[in-house]
Amino acid sequence: MIKTVIPAKLNEEKTKLELIDQTLLPNKEVFLYLDEREKIFEAIKMLRVRGAPAIGVAAAYGLYVCMNKMDTDSLSEFKKEFYETKDYLATSRPTAVNLFWALDRMQNRFEEEENNSLNVIEMKQALLDESEKIFAEDQAMGKAIGEYGLELLKPKMGLLTHCNAGGIATSGIGTALAPMYLGHEKDYDFKVYADETRPLLQGSRLTAYELNKAGIDVTIICDNMASLVMKEGKIDAVLVGCDRIAANGDTANKIGTSGVAILAKEYGIPMYILGPTSTIDMNTKTGNDIEIELRDEEEIGNGFGLRTAPKEVKAYNPAFDVTDAKYITAIITEKGIIRPPYKESLKKLFE
Ligand code: MRU
């Protein structure tokens, strides 16, 4: 039985958003209990909760707990506050489409129920129900992605991953790490190489933390070692997550992913993107239309409180890059394995 930490859920009383503070991992497991929108915004922005699916769940539950504590009988007052909170949370991070997808689902549910003339108490119940559905669907998708992903792998393979697309980034067993967990249950004996993932080290702090905890053989490497380990024949497949997949298959994921994909192509290694269909945005035509988050320069020159560059020197800190569809061997979703040409296959998926 695979056990992973759930990054975003409701507390027992269903009054607060419970997060494990991922900025403190792997050294400390500290839980946060939030019901103020500014604190929830801060937790998403500062990556206390991170990973596209977990951001979506945190936003949906976050919106619910903020609305649940509002004391009013007036549905119009409640609605005004709902839209303000929703719009505010939507500005916490720009790239992962799951944030907008989850908030839009909450809004659609609100509008649907408004037509059914619900009162405020009933509306709160409907919002709770929708956020719990988002959580449950997210939990289920990991297993399905894992099963499809495992079809593409063989025992004893060497696998490379970048950033963290594991249990700590979703409500279940992750996306890119899901086949590793399922393979582990079947004694596949994978050798996983985790890129450290500069500058915030999601690979060494989070991927290594959770795979190691599960007893999976994991080795961290610095990002600039990927070419060497591929050349040495240690890697049979690359498995990564995604923050937004455009309608043509171009995929935004953690900065550095596109370089890994280009290397994989050069060395003839399959490059798999694993993610739920909620990460596919058919309204985004190509990768050029994806907004890339720019983060604080200090994360590079003064990461984790250690100054590693002169104070006066500028740093450029894009948090994501886009891997062109031509480098992607397949996209693995909870609905199946999608192959090129992606424009056609993704369109078909949503028909
Ligand atoms: O900045 P982060 O840590 O939120 O970036 C996360 C990633 O890039 C993940 O690979 C992606 O969100 C997929 S998580 C299943």
Care to describe what's here?
This protein is of the alpha/beta class and 351 residues long. It has 2 domains: 8-140, translation initiation factor eif-2b, domain 1 (Four Helix Bundle (Hemerythrin (Met), subunit A)); 144-349, Rossmann fold. It contains 11 helices and 14 strands. It has helices at residues 37-45, 52-68, 75-89, 97-115, 120-151, 178-185, 202-213, 226-231, 257-267, 298-301, 342-349, and strands at residues 8-10, 17-20, 31-34, 158-161, 191-195, 218-221, 237-240, 244-246, 251-254, 271-274, 280-281, 320-323, 330-333, 336-338. The strands form 3 sheets. It has a 7-stranded mixed β-sheet, with helices on both faces. A 4-stranded mixed β-sheet has the order 11-8-9-12, with helices on one face. Strands 1-2-3 form a 3-stranded antiparallel β-sheet, covered by helices on one side. Helix 7 links the parallel strand 5 and strand 6 (218-221). Helix 5 (120-151) packs across helix 6. It is globular, with a radius of gyration of 20 Å. The two termini are 35 Å apart. The protein binds 5-S-methyl-1-O-phosphono-5-thio-D-ribulose (MRU). 5-S-methyl-1-O-phosphono-5-thio-D-ribulose binds next to helix 2 and strand 9.
